[in-house]
Amino acid sequence: MKKKLFYIFLLLFAGVAYYMGWIPSSTEVGNVSEETGVTSVVKDDLEHIEIPKTPQGVSERILKKTNYTVSFNKKHNIPNWVAWHITSDELVERESRTNDFQPDPELSTRDAVTTQDYVGSGYDRGHMCPAADNRYHWKAMNECFYMTNMCPQHHHLNTGLWNDLEQQCRRMVNSRNGVYVVCGPIVSSDASPRYIGRAHKVRVPDAFFKVILSGVEQGRPKGLAYIFDNEVTTGSLDSYACTIDEVEEITGIDFFHLLPDELENKIEAR
Prior knowledge:
Elements: H1 2-20, E1 61-64, E2 69-73, E3 78-86, E4 124-127, H2 138-143, E5 150-153, H3 155-159, H4 161-171, E6 179-186, E7 195-196, E8 202-203, E9 207-214, E10 222-229, E11 241-242, H5 244-251, H6 261-269
Antiparallel strand pairs: 1-2, 2-3, 3-6, 4-5, 6-9, 7-8, 9-10, 10-11
């Protein structure tokens, strides 16, 4: 009888403790990652973890769209980076690709790059956030064709390994796990930079980066990073893989800085 009363008391105490907030709910507790051995970021803190920090002194205007955020560089007329979160809900194909490239309406007519700036340049209007990640909603599809989401990109790269990596990111998504992506151009301090454009000078990137974070919701966070020269690219994706730390060193961008420091350091060094 005493033992039964003891268990009843424990159950009552646990219920009161949970109600009073002494015991955190499951959504407030991170999971221990088998890969990193550290506690993952809590679910309530996952929102916007894809948004990086741009280096100080770099031209930047943040433009928030339906499915992505862009850091636009007015000096170069291309993004510093574009960041978004891919979920299984967003991979439902409700809309067709529009191919309707438009100037970004958040910029003035004087400042907004147009598709005419790319005509005859020899470069593709290379999507950073791809159209296939935006087929779940008409507005998302429309906005992904804004020119602030584009960079002058070599056709072979755009239709080759860059496209392969976009598909790989989508394959990594499942009902339990989303993927956080940041990509953009790499612009060197070359004394003779390349430009295209008619009404606007659009800087041609020397290379492109893409960093990927997956498995966070499942407690198995994994970071991936790639760098591609803006030219004919051959071989496998693996041959272009690197650590996120390497991309940070080249670009000066601080990725996934909203993660706990221990977790961020572990992920980015691998």
